[in-house]
Structure formats: structure tokens, C-alpha cells
Amino acid sequence: MALLFFLALLFGASYAQLTETFYDQTCPRLPNIVRQEVKRAIETDIRAGAKLIRFHFHDCFVQGCDGSVLLEDAPGIDSELNGLGNLGIQGLEIVDAIKAAVESECPGVVSCADVLALAAKQSVDVQGGPSWRVLFGRRDSRTANRTGADELPSPFETLEPLKQKFEALGLDSTDLVAPSGAHTFGRSRCMFFSGRFSNFNGTGQPDPALDPAYRQELERACTDGETRVNFDPTTPDTFDKNYYTNLQANRGLLTSDQVLFSTPGADTIEIVNRLGSREGTFFRQFRVSMIKMGNIRPLTPNQGEIRRNCRGVNELGGEAGHDVM
């Protein structure tokens, strides 16, 4: 309760309108429906959970948690999916399946933004990670922000630009390091880290923060830029604290991962060490930071809409989703 009170103060009235019980009367089986669809997706695609949590991150970082990341190109909409930060993003069909299952039982009630928030939580929980209290009541945007998607945190960035992007959204260094732990599962294409193998930043040498033995493993695995490699070389499909022990061993896959530990004098070093010390410590902080991130500038009643199809806005004048409060 103390945590929720603090976050309510931090995010003000818009946060206070979100509640864990928002769908208790209108869609009481929502958590079970989403969990079932997430489990089904993971059974057929082990990367499904990582895809879903990435969608939630990328949604919230561009004009708030409003489902805008899911909108495809349409008249008046330049899709965020075309933005540099979303190149290669996958999993729209998984979101479609989850939304269809929700619509089947609760038509026009649950927003796509709330579906993303809950699917991210269930993805982590199903693969061995922590659970947390998802607050609901977000509405879906009728607009997208391609420019914002171009400015999403990059896998090539050093620490200061990353911190600045998080700070602009009210997120501190701990909120940078803890959610980055989601890279304990999932895959990355070689094009996003192969520049670390040689002539790193024009030095003519490999990235000194990349363990040489690990670099050789990666070079052998990367037959081309499209090849996908596990973020976590130890337990690639389990949500655990090994992301941080990998950073401590200079085995962070992306530049944006390793700089959390290898930037001299950075405040993030202590945070990596703390979250890597005990799994329970990581899980507790991950919960806090995910609640905080999931409530960045949500659209609440009298704003946005409840999209029937997450890929496009509702037709004006046609049957649309309705308010539930």
C-alpha cells in the first residue's frame, strides 16, 4: 500500500484513476484469459514472452502507455512500427490472438494498452519471473508518433543518453537497470551487436567491455546480421537474475546492456551488483519499476477509445468500445 501511495503521488491524478479492480465487474476473467493465451503462444514460440514485454516497453516510451505502438499505417497515421526503434519488432499476431480471446468474452471493454500491460506481466510470470499488480483503466490512442519511435532507447547507446531518455519519463537509474533485466530471456539479431567484435567505435579493436571468449562464441554464431542469438547464454528461456551476473562477467550482449556495469564511476554499477546478488532482490525491484513504467501518461476516461482491433482505430460513427466506469 505504501508503494502504491507513493506512485500515486508521483504520477498524480492520471495514475490514481488506474486501479487493479477496473475490470472486476465487466471482464472478471481477464487475467485468466490473457494468461491462457500467453501460455499457448509460448508453447509454440519460446520468444513470445520477450516479444510481448518489448511491445509494452515500446508502447509506454512513446506518448505513454496507450497502445499506439500497435497501430499500422492508415490515413493520418504514420505507424510507430516504421520507427527506427521498432525495426524488426515481432509479435503482432500474438497480440491479435490475445485481444480476440478477450473480445470474445468481453466485447468492447478492454483496451489494447491494458492487454499489453497484462500480457507483459503474464509473460514474465509464466517463464519463472515475478508477478505484480497490474493496474487497469488505460485507453487506446487514436494517433501514433513515428518520431517518438525513432528516439526509443537504442542498443548502441552509451549510458548517459539512456539515462536521459529514462529521466525524461520520470524513471531513475534503478528504473533503467531493473527493467533491463528483461533481457534475461529472448533473442537479438547479430546486426545489433556485431559492431563490438572489431573496430569498436573506430578504435580498430574489439569492445574492451566484451569478454574475449564470449566474443569468439558470438562471432561463430553470427553467420549474418539476421542471425538471432540468446540474450542470456546461461539460461536463455528462464526469467532469472543471470542478466546481471552476465554483465559482471562482461557478457552483456548489447552495448546498452554492458554499459550499465562497465561505465567507470556510474551509479548503475552498484545497482547491477545489488540486483545480481539475490534473485528475490531483483524480482522485488522489477515489480516496482514495472508498475512505475506501466503507468506513464495513460489515457483515462474521456480520452482515447477502446479499440476493437489493436492494429487500427475504431471507425467513427460505427460500433466502438465503450467506457466501463
**Rg calc:** 19 Å
Number of domains: 2
Would you tell me the overall average pLDDT?
92
The helix fraction, in percent, is 40-55%
CATH architecture of the largest domain: Orthogonal Bundle
Termini separation comes to: 23 Å
Structural class by secondary-structure content: mainly alpha
The main sheet comes to: 2 strands, antiparallel
| Morphology call | globular
Strand content: under 5%
The CATH class label of the largest domain is Mainly Alpha
**Poorly predicted spans:** 1-16, 317-325
CATH topology of the largest domain: Peroxidase, domain 1
Given the structure, what is the number of helices?
13
Number of strands: 2
Describe the overall structure.
With 325 residues, the protein is an all-alpha fold. It folds into 2 domains: 29-151, Peroxidase, domain 1, CATH 1.10.520; 171-290, Peroxidase, domain 2. Helices cover 44% and strands 2% of the residues. Helix 3 packs across helix 5 (112-126). The longest helix has 15 residues, at 2-16. The two termini are 23 Å apart. It holds the Pfam family peroxidase. It comes from Cucurbita pepo.
